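Hey,
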Amino acid sequence: MKKLRIFTTGGTIDKIYFDAKSEYEVGEPQIGEILREMGVTFAFELSPLMRKDSLDMTAEDREQIRQAVRQCPENHILITHGTDTMTETAKILGEIPDKTIVLTGALNPARFRGSDAIFNIGGAVGAVQSLAPGIYIFMNGRVFQAGKVRKNREKNRFEEI
Protein backbone atom coordinates (compact mmCIF):
# COMPACT_ATOMS: atom_id res chain seq x y z
CA MET A 1 0.00 0.00 0.00
CA LYS A 2 1.63 3.22 -1.16
CA LYS A 3 -0.98 5.52 0.35
CA LEU A 4 -4.35 5.03 2.00
CA ARG A 5 -7.14 7.31 0.81
CA ILE A 6 -9.71 8.04 3.50
CA PHE A 7 -13.11 9.45 2.61
CA THR A 8 -15.28 10.75 5.44
CA THR A 9 -19.04 11.09 5.16
CA GLY A 10 -20.12 11.85 8.73
CA GLY A 11 -22.13 9.54 10.94
CA THR A 12 -21.96 8.84 14.64
CA ILE A 13 -18.16 8.46 14.57
CA ASP A 14 -17.87 12.25 14.01
CA LYS A 15 -20.79 13.42 16.17
CA ILE A 16 -20.30 16.02 18.87
CA TYR A 17 -22.62 17.68 21.37
CA PHE A 18 -24.30 20.59 19.66
CA ASP A 19 -26.06 22.36 22.52
CA ALA A 20 -27.06 22.11 26.16
CA LYS A 21 -30.06 19.93 25.26
CA SER A 22 -27.66 17.08 24.39
CA GLU A 23 -28.48 17.18 20.70
CA TYR A 24 -25.77 15.97 18.37
CA GLU A 25 -24.33 17.43 15.23
CA VAL A 26 -21.85 15.82 12.87
CA GLY A 27 -18.55 17.63 13.44
CA GLU A 28 -15.08 17.59 11.93
CA PRO A 29 -13.76 14.18 10.82
CA GLN A 30 -12.01 12.46 13.73
CA ILE A 31 -10.04 9.80 11.87
CA GLY A 32 -7.06 11.96 10.89
CA GLU A 33 -6.43 13.03 14.47
CA ILE A 34 -6.90 9.46 15.70
CA LEU A 35 -4.37 8.08 13.20
CA ARG A 36 -1.82 10.80 14.08
CA GLU A 37 -2.29 10.13 17.82
CA MET A 38 -1.71 6.41 17.20
CA GLY A 39 1.55 7.17 15.39
CA VAL A 40 0.79 5.34 12.16
CA THR A 41 3.73 5.07 9.79
CA PHE A 42 1.86 4.82 6.50
CA ALA A 43 0.92 7.71 4.23
CA PHE A 44 -2.73 8.68 4.09
CA GLU A 45 -4.82 11.39 2.52
CA LEU A 46 -8.04 12.54 4.12
CA SER A 47 -10.88 13.66 1.82
CA PRO A 48 -14.04 14.84 3.59
CA LEU A 49 -17.04 14.37 1.28
CA MET A 50 -19.93 15.37 3.55
CA ARG A 51 -21.01 15.62 7.18
CA LYS A 52 -24.26 13.71 7.35
CA ASP A 53 -26.02 11.24 9.52
CA SER A 54 -26.37 8.24 7.23
CA LEU A 55 -30.15 8.26 7.68
CA ASP A 56 -30.11 11.64 5.89
CA MET A 57 -28.07 10.39 2.91
CA THR A 58 -29.67 10.50 -0.50
CA ALA A 59 -29.06 8.57 -3.71
CA GLU A 60 -27.12 11.63 -4.91
CA ASP A 61 -24.87 11.48 -1.83
CA ARG A 62 -24.12 7.82 -2.48
CA GLU A 63 -23.36 8.60 -6.12
CA GLN A 64 -20.95 11.32 -4.95
CA ILE A 65 -19.16 8.75 -2.78
CA ARG A 66 -19.05 6.23 -5.63
CA GLN A 67 -17.61 8.79 -8.07
CA ALA A 68 -14.98 9.95 -5.56
CA VAL A 69 -13.85 6.35 -4.99
CA ARG A 70 -13.79 5.59 -8.72
CA GLN A 71 -11.78 8.69 -9.58
CA CYS A 72 -9.16 8.57 -6.83
CA PRO A 73 -5.80 7.10 -7.91
CA GLU A 74 -5.31 5.04 -4.74
CA ASN A 75 -6.29 1.36 -4.68
CA HIS A 76 -6.69 1.15 -0.89
CA ILE A 77 -9.64 3.14 0.42
CA LEU A 78 -11.20 3.49 3.85
CA ILE A 79 -14.57 5.21 4.23
CA THR A 80 -15.97 6.38 7.56
CA HIS A 81 -19.73 6.25 7.41
CA GLY A 82 -22.82 6.22 9.60
CA THR A 83 -23.80 2.71 10.58
CA ASP A 84 -27.53 2.87 9.80
CA THR A 85 -27.10 2.86 6.01
CA MET A 86 -23.48 1.76 5.62
CA THR A 87 -24.58 -1.47 3.93
CA GLU A 88 -26.52 0.48 1.27
CA THR A 89 -23.46 2.52 0.35
CA ALA A 90 -21.32 -0.63 0.28
CA LYS A 91 -23.69 -2.19 -2.27
CA ILE A 92 -23.38 0.83 -4.57
CA LEU A 93 -19.58 0.57 -4.45
CA GLY A 94 -19.69 -3.11 -5.43
CA GLU A 95 -19.12 -2.50 -9.12
CA ILE A 96 -15.76 -0.74 -8.66
CA PRO A 97 -12.98 -3.12 -9.76
CA ASP A 98 -9.36 -3.42 -8.61
CA LYS A 99 -9.73 -1.49 -5.34
CA THR A 100 -9.82 -2.67 -1.75
CA ILE A 101 -12.50 -0.61 -0.03
CA VAL A 102 -13.39 -0.90 3.66
CA LEU A 103 -16.23 1.01 5.30
CA THR A 104 -16.34 1.52 9.05
CA GLY A 105 -18.02 3.72 11.59
CA ALA A 106 -18.93 3.74 15.25
CA LEU A 107 -21.92 3.03 17.42
CA ASN A 108 -20.77 5.81 19.79
CA PRO A 109 -19.04 9.10 18.91
CA ALA A 110 -15.23 8.93 18.72
CA ARG A 111 -14.94 11.68 21.33
CA PHE A 112 -16.74 9.54 23.93
CA ARG A 113 -14.83 7.43 26.39
CA GLY A 114 -15.44 3.79 25.60
CA SER A 115 -16.34 4.46 21.98
CA ASP A 116 -15.76 1.67 19.51
CA ALA A 117 -14.37 4.21 17.00
CA ILE A 118 -10.63 3.69 17.60
CA PHE A 119 -11.00 -0.11 17.58
CA ASN A 120 -13.03 0.00 14.34
CA ILE A 121 -10.59 2.36 12.65
CA GLY A 122 -7.66 0.12 13.62
CA GLY A 123 -9.43 -2.97 12.36
CA ALA A 124 -10.42 -1.27 9.11
CA VAL A 125 -6.85 -0.07 8.53
CA GLY A 126 -5.54 -3.62 8.99
CA ALA A 127 -8.26 -5.02 6.75
CA VAL A 128 -7.72 -2.57 3.89
CA GLN A 129 -4.01 -3.45 3.82
CA SER A 130 -4.45 -7.22 3.86
CA LEU A 131 -7.63 -8.07 1.93
CA ALA A 132 -7.98 -8.77 -1.77
CA PRO A 133 -9.73 -6.14 -3.90
CA GLY A 134 -13.41 -5.91 -3.03
CA ILE A 135 -15.87 -4.09 -0.80
CA TYR A 136 -15.91 -4.82 2.93
CA ILE A 137 -17.34 -3.53 6.19
CA PHE A 138 -15.37 -3.67 9.45
CA MET A 139 -17.58 -3.46 12.54
CA ASN A 140 -17.80 -5.29 15.87
CA GLY A 141 -14.35 -6.84 15.46
CA ARG A 142 -15.21 -8.56 12.19
CA VAL A 143 -14.70 -8.11 8.48
CA PHE A 144 -17.85 -8.61 6.44
CA GLN A 145 -18.22 -8.79 2.68
CA ALA A 146 -20.55 -6.17 1.26
CA GLY A 147 -23.93 -7.65 0.46
CA LYS A 148 -23.54 -10.33 3.12
CA VAL A 149 -24.02 -8.19 6.22
CA ARG A 150 -26.76 -6.26 7.96
CA LYS A 151 -27.07 -4.06 10.99
CA ASN A 152 -29.18 -5.65 13.70
CA ARG A 153 -30.69 -2.53 15.26
CA GLU A 154 -32.22 -4.44 18.19
CA LYS A 155 -28.83 -5.83 19.24
CA ASN A 156 -26.92 -2.75 17.98
CA ARG A 157 -24.38 -4.78 16.06
CA PHE A 158 -23.50 -6.02 12.60
CA GLU A 159 -24.02 -9.63 11.62
CA GLU A 160 -23.60 -11.87 8.61
CA ILE A 161 -26.67 -12.56 6.48
